[in-house]
Amino acid sequence: MDRFYLVFIAIFGFFISQINCQIRREARWCTVNADELEKCGYLKNAMDERHKLHPTYPTGFKSYLELPELICKSGRDRFACMEMIYDNEADLVQLDPGMSYTAGQYFTMMPLMAEKYSLDAGEETGLTYYAVVVARKDRPDINYFNLKGKRACNPSVGNAAGWTYPISTLMQDNQMSISECNVPVKSAAEFFGPMCAPNGLARFYNPFGNNPQTVCQNCKGIGDNYCTGMDPYSGYEGAFFCMSSGDGDVAFVRDSTIYQAIAHTNSSIRPEDFELLCKDGKRVPVDQASTCNWGTIPSHVVMTSAIHDITLRDDYKMMMNLMSRDFGVGGTYTNITEMFSSVGYVRKNLLFSDETKSLFDVSKVQGGSRDTYYTWVGPEYVRRLEVMNKCPLQQARFCVISPYEMMKCENMIMAFSAKGLKPDLNCIMGLSIRDCMDKIRTGDADMIALNAADVYIAGKYYGLVPIAAEDYSGASTPVYYAVAVARRTESHLTIFNLKARRSCHAGVMTAEGWVVPVDKLIETAQIRVDDSNVYHAVGQFFSKSCVPGALNDFYNTKGTNPQNLCEACASGGRDRCQRNDRELYYGSSGAFRCLAEFGGDVAFVKHTTVRENTNGRNLADWARNRRSDDYELLCNDGTRRDIDQWRDCNMGEIPANAIVTAGFKTEEQRLIYWTLLNFGQQFFASDSNTEFSMFDSYLDHKDLIFQDSTVRLVPIEQENQNYEKFLGNRFIRSMERMEHIDRITAGSVNLCPMYISLFLSLMFAILLQK
Question: Cα angle vertex 112, ends 73, 420, to 5°?
Answer without folding.
Answer: 90
